[in-house]
Structure formats: C-alpha cells, structure tokens
Amino acid sequence: MSAAIDFYFDFSSPYSYLAAQEIDKLASAHGRSVEWRPMLLGALFKTTGGVPLVDVPLKGAYAIHDFKRSARYSGVPFRMPSAFPISTVNSARATLWVKAQTPARTADFVRAVFKAYFVDDRNINDVDQLAAIASEIGLDAEALRAAVADPAIKDALRVANEDAVAHGVCGAPFILVDNEPFWGNDRLPQLKRWLTEGGF
Amino acid sequence: MSAAIDFYFDFSSPYSYLAAQEIDKLASAHGRSVEWRPMLLGALFKTTGGVPLVDVPLKGAYAIHDFKRSARYSGVPFRMPSAFPISTVNSARATLWVKAQTPARTADFVRAVFKAYFVDDRNINDVDQLAAIASEIGLDAEALRAAVADPAIKDALRVANEDAVAHGVCGAPFILVDNEPFWGNDRLPQLKRWLTEGGF
Fold it and tell me: Alpha-carbon distance A97 to A113, whole Å?
C-alpha cells in the first residue's frame, strides 16, 4: 500500500466538510489510506494574515452562496450554521483523541462532527455536544470529556498546527499526496487525476 | 439567443487566462455570447482589502505551483511571467477600445494579450507591446496608441471597475450568468452544469 494521503482540515470549513465526504473513497480507490489531520485555521491565519472568508467585503456574500451551491453540486446535505465560523479547538482535540485511542473510528467521528455542525446546526465546540456525538457513534463520552482537557492532547493540537504551517498548509481543506499539495475541495478533480496517472 | 455571459477578468490573473481559453466555447454551446469585461483587481482590492495572492505567506508559494499545474491540467501552455503581477491598466483600456471599435475581434485581442503575457513573457502594460500585438492580429496599432491615452477610454475603465464592485465581483475570473455568480476558473464545471440544467 502506498503512503497515506494527508487531509488537513478545520471543522469550521464548509469546503473541508464537502471534501471529507469523498476523500477516503478516492484514496481507497487508489490503494491509499487517509491521515485525518485536524488543525485550526486561526493558527494558519497568524502566518498568512488571513481572516475568515465571510468577513471579507464582497467575498463574504459570495462565499455563503457558493457554500450552498457547491453542496448541491456535490449532492451533499448542507445548512448554513446559525453561528459561523466558530472555534473548533475542542472538536479538533477530540479528533486527536479518537485517532490516538481508536484510529479505525476516526473517519466516522470526523464525519459525525461535520454533520452535527453543517447539517444539524449543533455547537461542535461545546463539550456536552461532542460527548453526545461520541456516544451516538459508540465511543466513550466520558473519556472524550477528559481528553479535551488533557494537557497532552492540548499539546498535540499545538504540534498539529505547527506541523501544518511547516508543510505549507495555507487553507482548508489541504491535501498532501507524496508531498504534492492540493488546496480546496475544488482541487479534488486534479487530485483524482494525480492519483490515477501518478502525476501530470 | 439568451443573455450574454459576463466574463470579468484582469490580464494579470492566471486563472482568468485559463478560463478565457474555454469560456466562449462553453457559452456558444449553450446559445450564449460572451461579454468580455476587463477590470483591475487592484480596484477590487480597495473594497475587499485583498492583496495579490503571491504576496501572501504560504499561499504565495502554493499559488505559483497551482498556476502551473492547473495549466497542465487544462492542457494550456503557461509560463510564469518574469514580472508578476503587473499593472494592466493599458491592456484593459486597449480592450475597451477594441470592444467599442471592432467588437467581433474582442475575443481574439483578449487571447492575444493573455498569450503575450502568460506564454511569451511580454510586458502587456507597455504601449509599444500592445500596439505590436494589435498589429499582429490585424488591428490598427496607431489607433490603439491614441485610445489608451483617450480620456473617454480612461473614464470607461473607471466605470467598468465601479460596475464590477456594484455587481459583487470579488476576484477574477468572475462570471455572471443571468445574475448567478461564479468566481474562479475552478467553477467552470458548476457553470457548465448551470447552463445545461438551467440552474441546480
């Protein structure tokens, strides 16, 4: 089996949500696994000087329109959350805990959290909600509560953010295939061709 | 024939160059013409607070890589210009003059200027170069020289920039189909489906 595909994402990124619905099917069709890499866009923005897209004049209004249309284009359910964007520090920490404890459940947890936010409008930074989501998919809710407050997990997220910057991650989703970078859900067609042809 | 497709672009935008290779084939396949709308990204940036992509930490390095790969993906020749980005005020003015004088030649002129910049590395803000490009495709070089200094053409470009902001144009290329906005060369697949299905 070839090296894993690195999938860098932020739970508050609609384009990450859309790409997360397809990335492991795409990977496994080419004999790859997915390394889910939660991180915080806010940490990147300290390097890039970026601000949330929806806060930019002109781009903000377009972006919300495009989130919804891109979801329809991909056939993925989507509802604009009532609070957007939000801090995703707890959902990112919780994901690192799932990866460490039950790695085979990581994709299930990631998609459950994305769905909670972008379909069911739940507050995915709230620890009660995260514990409930864990419980709904058969993970240990009490252990999750402990994990998001665990200094080792907090450290792991700091390291994950630094790792993202070190790898040139400049937005989300950001996908690395054998060091080849693809930024954005709209680069999945190029990624697919890259995997099929071994580059182009 | 249905309403024209509005194609807003800046000659210094590689993604505009790529989209310009496809937009009129796509339009005519759906009984549409293309309204070529040159404008200056710098004028938009006053509203959006934007800066050229290549000047943004992390994003800059990725962007140059992505320009080249996106060109290969589309099968379009591309060479990163030695000076980038540059002012495109004269090439935009020259285009407005072509549109006014010989509208049927607008697409030819636009593609000749894009090729001069993104394939042949010519300085497309230089009036001598623009006059030469006009001459190469059978347009009146001396009339072009006069046009780029004509106060009426200068005014027309100011109005074009204001029109872009008024229509919510937040980057380039930016395409309007019956008021439905598509930003970016990577939205051509959605645009194609929109034209085919009359929306989705």
Answer: 14
Query: Is this complex's ipTM strictly greater than 0.90?
Result: yes
Q: d(Cα A66, Cα A64) in Å, to the nearest integer?
A: 5
Give the residue ranges of DSSP H helices in chain A. 14-20, 23-28, 41-48, 59-74, 89-101, 106-118, 127-136, 141-148, 151-166, 188-197
d(CA A93, CA A56): 28
C-alpha distances out from residue A196 to A129, A193, B71, Å: 39, 5, 18
Closest C-alpha to B53, from B14, B83, B91, B4:
B14
Length of chain A: 200
- Chains A, B: CB pairs < 8 Å: 72
Burial of A77 per CB tally in 10 Å (0-12, 13-18, 19+): exposed
Record the tokens describing residue B67, joined without a space.
Answer: 């320009």
3-state secondary structure of B111: helix
Q: Do A190 and B62 touch (CB under 8 A)?
A: no
Residue of B nearest to A47 (CA): B57
Quick count: other Cβ atoms within 10 Å of Cβ A149? 11
State yes or no: is B87 an active-site residue.
no
Per-residue pLDDT of chain A (200 residues; tens, 9 = 90+): 589 999 999 999 999 999 999 999 999 999 999 999 999 999 988 888 888 888 888 899 999 999 999 999 999 999 999 999 999 999 999 999 999 999 999 999 999 999 999 999 999 999 999 999 999 999 999 999 999 999 999 999 999 999 999 999 999 999 999 999 999 999 999 999 999 999 99
Length of chain B: 200
